Please model this.
Amino acid sequence: MYQVKIMKKSNVLLPQYETSNASGMDLRADLDEEIVLRPGERALIPTGIHIELPAGLEAQVRARSGLAIKYGVGLVNGIGTIDSDYRGEIKIPVINWGQEDFLIRPGDRIAQLVICKYEKISWVPVEHLGETQRGSGGFGHTGIE
Model:
């Protein structure tokens, strides 16, 4: 298990795993007052935390599935990446894709944070790529059944 340095600038709870086999930790809104997110509106929600990831790890900010299905609230950019050299406050770019106003209160769980390993690569320019059964087929090439 990695140990990751975390600094918080408020009384917000630290991200934590809610179940023993959860891969994501809930991130909470660090707000002084409630925010109403109207349909189609976007907002950048502070979390009050800063992290120092070791090289070779990234933090992925992901939507909470309950907020997405119940209220239509997700992330503007789908999944956000926090690189190991970023030291600023983690902020969550949320959007209300729903049809009703959505209220975000101080301390609400608004996203989740998943820590992942990654590999660096170097490109090798070539004239041809190896053959596969799939080839260049994409976007539904295998059908729907």
